[in-house]
Amino acid sequence: MSLFTHDTTVPSYVYLSMVGMVGLGLASVFGGVQFWKRRSRTEGTLKEIGRRADEVSSLKKTLKDLQDVLKSREEEMLLLRQQAERMKKEMLELERQFDSSRIRNQSLGDRVRALEMEKQKVHDEKERIDLESAQIRQLLDCRTAELKGAEAFLTKADSLSGAEVISLVEALNSEILQTAAFMAESFQFEEKNSITSNLGEMSKDTKEAYAAAEEILGTRMVELLRLSEHHEDPMLVQIAFQASIAAYAHWIIASWYFEDPEDEHLLSEIYARVRESEEQAISGRWRALTRIHLQRMLAHEPDLSIYMVDAFVHVLITAGLRDSAAVLHERIMSEFLDRILLILRAAVRLNKIIGEGITSCDLEVFYVAPDILFNPPTMDDAYGSPAASEYEAVLCTTDLGLVRAERRPGKDAEWNESVLLKPKVVLPSGLQDVDNVDVGQDSESFA
User: Fold this and answer.
1) Strand pairing partners for 421?
2) DSSP characters for 371-403?
């Protein structure tokens, strides 16, 4: 359909004119439209160009930023490459060091293993040496013990000389004399009568005292004590005290371990056999060691004073003192114990010196029992009576003596014996001048 309608009646010029005008108008309109379109397109293009310029500017900025970032990244990459290179070098160095350390460790491991083997060898050698040392020490200890035993049995060194032992015995005798004299003078005796002299009428305790006194002093000395007067001169009581102390001191010095002589008899028998079969050095050391160990076995130190005090009580009752045994015992313990202990300590010391300290010979305290015949070469008369005779029997011993005996070398048991100190004994003839003592009452008993 055409844009314009026309009537067929219109003249052609008019039509043509109108067509021209319309064509001109259409052209103008079309040109205007085209202009505006072009302008519009231009503006759009300009806007697009501006927009694109902005985009380009933004892209340039972005590109610059990216270039800056890229540059920074490149710098970082360079640093990283440098760092990587450095780390690579360090790694190579570490690998080299690791290889070197591994080789060194391997070498050290070999060295350690070698040292361990060497250590084991040293340990084994040490154990072997320790074992040998222990065996050597054991053998040495054994040999040392054997040597000590041999030295103990073979040594001849004495702790004191014979002269020193004599001095100790003399000192003991002096103390015995002083104590006996002091005690005898300390008691007051009453004058006796015919009743007290009748043994059949005496009490049981008195008879028991007589019997106990006889075991030490002998029958004749007890009879003299019982029948003689002591109220004016207690000399006979003093002699009885001396004899009692000497008897107990002799027992203490000779004792193995301060027990009853019957209990010690077996040891004495054994020692006698040892003396007969062994050399002096061996028998002497046997005696010394036996005494040492026997006395160490004692649970407690024995009270030796009780025996001596009992002997004094028996002497006093036999001599006619009428106090009871308990009263006399208490008085003696309270008044004379210090002196008694002094004597006992001296006797015990001699026991150790003679029994343990002297081995080159045998020293024995010489005590003469009652009723033994007087022998002038080995005994001294305590009172030096001119009438002393070897046919007289000893009443008692007041002073201890000392005898030395040594076995001669050789198979046969032969002995060298000598009296170093004579014991002093009381003879009936020595009492002739003592007041109130009648030794002639029983002449047969004193013959």
Assistant:
1) 402
2) TPBP-TTT-EETT--TT--TTSBP-EEEE-EEE
Give pLDDT tens digits for 8-19: 454 555 555 565
Q: How far apart are CA 362 and CA 66, in angstroms?
A: 130
pLDDT digits (tens, 9 = 90+) for 122-140: 889 888 888 988 888 888 8
d(CA 380, CA 390): 11
For residue 91, what are the β-bridge partners? none
What is the torsional sign of CA 365, 371, 375, 380? positive
CA-angle at 343, arms to 338 and 347, nearest 5°: 145
What is the CA 88 to chain-centroid distance, rounded? 73
SS (H, E, C) 295-308: HHCCCCCCCCHHHH
User: Is 416 in contact with 434 (CB distance < 8 Å)?
Assistant: no
Residue located via tokens 């397109």: 41
Dihedral (Cα; 325, 328, 330, 333), 10-degree rounding: -120
Which residues sit opposite 349 in a β-bridge? Answer: none
pLDDT digits (tens, 9 = 90+) for 221-259: 999 999 988 988 899 999 999 999 999 999 999 999 887
Position 269: which residue type?
Answer: E
Q: Pick from 129, 107, 109: which is nearest to 117 by CA?
A: 109
416 DSSP β-pair partners: 406
The whole-angstrom separation of Cα 4 and Cα 263 is: 183
The whole-angstrom separation of Cα 447 and Cα 439 is 11
- CA 199 – CA 195 distance, rounded (Å): 9
In one-letter notation, the amino acid at residue 405 is A
